[in-house]
Every structure is written in C-alpha cells, then in structure tokens.
Design a protein that fits this description.
CATH topology of the largest domain: Beta Polymerase, domain 2
Helix content: 40-55%
Strand content: 5-15%
Structural class: alpha+beta
CATH class of the largest domain: Alpha Beta
Order of helices and strands: HEHEEEHHEHHHHHHHEEE
CATH architecture of the largest domain: 2-Layer Sandwich
Strand order of the largest sheet: 3-4-2-1-5
Shape: globular
Number of domains: 2
Radius of gyration: 21 Å
Number of strands: 8
Number of helices: 11
Distance between the termini: 36 Å
C-alpha cells in the first residue's frame, strides 16, 4: 500500500468533523484480539476545489485501521444507502465531533429509506456466496464472516421493521460469538440467514421508512457548509507558496 501524501493526511488531522470507532468494537462483538477500526469524515476547505488538483474523496490513515471520507463523498454514499456508511452515522463509539459533525449526525434520518433493503440484502447475498465458496474449497466457512453476515441481516430486518438503525447487537452478542468460534453447525447458520432475509422482505412492505432518502435536505446542508468554508481564511497552498483568498486570487 502506497503511503498517503502528507497534504491528504493534513486534511484528516485539521479538518475532521466526525470520527468514530466501527467494526466489532462498535457492534458489541469485540474480544481481546479485536482491532480498533476508526472511520471519519473530513470537510475539505472550499478553496481547495478552485485548483486543478482536487482534494481526495477519501484518505487512509494516519493511524492503523483508519479511513476517512470527504463530506461530499460520504453523503453521496449514504444517500445510496451504502451499509458501511449508514452504520458509521450510528456508531455508539464517537471519538470526535464538531458543530458541522453534529449537523451531519442530525441528518441521520434523512439518509434512511426503504432503498436500504436492497443495498443491505445485495451486500449480504454477495457475502453469502463467498461463504458458500469457502465451504466448497475448504470444507468450512470463515466463521467470523458468517457471524458478521448474521449481524448485518439482523440489522437490515430491524431497520425495515422499526425505521431505526441500531448496530450494537445487544443480547445477541453471545449467540453471534458462538458462530464466530465455529460452535454452530453451518446448516443452522444458513437457516438463520434465510429466515432473517425473509423477515426483512416481509417488513419492507409495511416499513415506516420513506421510499427514498431526503436528498434535498442533505444537499442544502452540503451547500451551506461549503459556502461557510469559502468565507474562511484559505489554506496554505504549497504549490504557489501563498494562499488563495475567498475570491480565488493568489496572494504572496
């Protein structure tokens, strides 16, 4: 993996608006050997978009297992009901949030819609096919992946049923960890997956969620924060040894 350019890491360091812990530690499934997966959202200064070289849509690092998205890209993916992105907005392990980040979190419901059923179940189907391929090749699935697939299917069903996304597994922790340890026969795990997918489909038809996300509300938020950023002192531009003011004029 190639290291990120220093200016990209600076965006994460200086312009993060929201940062959280994801993975097993957010799901309530952490054990002694679990990694700490960090996810975040940064707001690239508007002045950086006036250059030919645009800011990155995402940045890896600077910490291990850390990944951040630029706000616009994050919102685009959330509006498409990307499961990983939607779950980031509902992490119980928030490590940092500023005023703009709090506005983003206040929009969580605007991103949720019945479209999440398709994206969650499509992703789950792809993961299930990989598990079945593991069985054909090695005689057993990757049990950790099986555990997380059950968790995702449960989350999708409950989202369709209640209209709320909860990612901490709560009382399901021990049954799911038993799957991870390989203590539950594959036919039983497979039966659970089929049942959860069927229940999610049934809940879809009377879900309290809207048919589509509130794109206009999210776009209004994005425009407002971009405009506010444009009125702030512009970032130092190493390429021209100066700064670009709010009108895009180079000052030396």
């Amino acid at each position: 993996m190639r290291p990120e350019p220093s200016e990209h890491l600076t965006l994460v360091r200086d312009h993060t608006i929201y940062a959280c812990v994801m993975g097993s530690r957010a799901f309530g499934l952490a054990t002694d050997g679990s990694d700490t997966d960090r996810r975040g959202v940064f707001l690239a200064p508007t002045a950086l978009y006036w250059r030919f070289d645009k800011p990155p849509t995402h940045v890896e690092g600077p910490q291990e297992e850390q990944f951040s998205w630029e706000l616009e890209r994050f919102c685009e993916l959330a509006l498409r009901a990307n499961p990983n992105i939607l779950e980031c907005l509902h992490s119980p392990r928030v490590e940092y949030v500023d005023d703009t980040g709090r506005e983003l979190l206040a929009l969580r419901e605007a991103f949720l819609s019945r479209q999440a059923h398709e994206t969650f179940t499509r992703y789950a189907l792809g993961q299930r096919k990989k598990l079945e391929a593991d069985i054909r090749s090695h005689g057993a699935p990757r049990w950790k992946h099986a555990m997380h697939l059950l968790r995702l299917l449960t989350s999708a069903r409950d989202l369709m049923r209640t209209g709320s996304l909860t990612i901490d597994v709560g009382d399901e922790r021990e049954p799911l960890l038993a799957v991870k340890r390989g203590e539950v026969p594959w036919p039983e795990v497979e039966s659970r997956m089929t049942r959860l997918a069927r229940e999610a489909e049934e809940c879809l038809h009377h879900s309290p969620l809207p048919a589509e996300p509130d794109r206009r509300r999210v776009e209004d938020f994005l425009i407002r924060v971009r405009r506010a950023s444009a009125l702030q002192p512009a970032p130092y531009d190493e390429g021209v040894q100066g700064v670009v003011d709010a009108r895009g004029v180079g000052q030396r």
